[in-house]
Amino acid sequence: MSDQHEAPIKTPRQLIIIIVLAFIVPITLIVLLSQLMTSGEKGLQDNQNAVLARIKAVGEVTLAAPSGPKGQATGAEVYNQVCKTCHETGLAGAPKVGDKAAWVKVIAQGSSTVFDHALKGIRGMPAKGGNPDFADVEVERAVVYMANQAGAAWKDPPAPSGPVADRTGEQVVAAACGKCHQTGEGGAPKVGDRAAWTARVKQGFASVTQSALKGHGGMPARGGMAELSDVEIKRAVEYMFNSGTGSPAAAPAAAATPAAAK
Question: What is the pTM of this model?
Fold first, then answer.
């Protein structure tokens, strides 16, 4: 009795099919394994900032914070900080500064109406240009500045009236300036240190006062207390000036209104 074994491949066609499958099956398995290893929710590893960066709008407006004490910025300063972004280029239909044709209808509404639009916002323009830190009077000055560039003859609104604070120079130093000038922090000349104040004295009282009002180096404007009036700041400077030099400077008198104290 003899064993007989039949060959699994009997025809050339079967041979071709087996060869093809020998290539296709491994490749298919490799592709499936690759997809399995790399599958998952897209963006899962992204942080929130990256996602927001991908979907943010094409245009982006950056609003700067106002400089100086509240209520003191000029119309040009407010314009340059927030209004310029749209009103210089006409972005989103904003009337361009100096374009008389674009501003004629705006000016015809009257300053009161245009002030109200600027303060509350209108047709896509955010209230106060998007910066609520500006005082109403500052925003109104910016409107006047832009309108006048287009031929209007509007006047800046008057500064709000009210009592002027009447603290002495010594009181202001104790409340604001002393935290640095009593200790010399950040290189501030210490009150009573004659040598440290000599260089400041050479600049003159007016120059030192301007530095105190506007800020200088690491010293914030008005010692970081925006509510201090110009008169109070000048008195504080006078107090420290005299304490360091022994040379009396004329004390600024109290004013009846904030505008007069400037």
Answer: 0.40
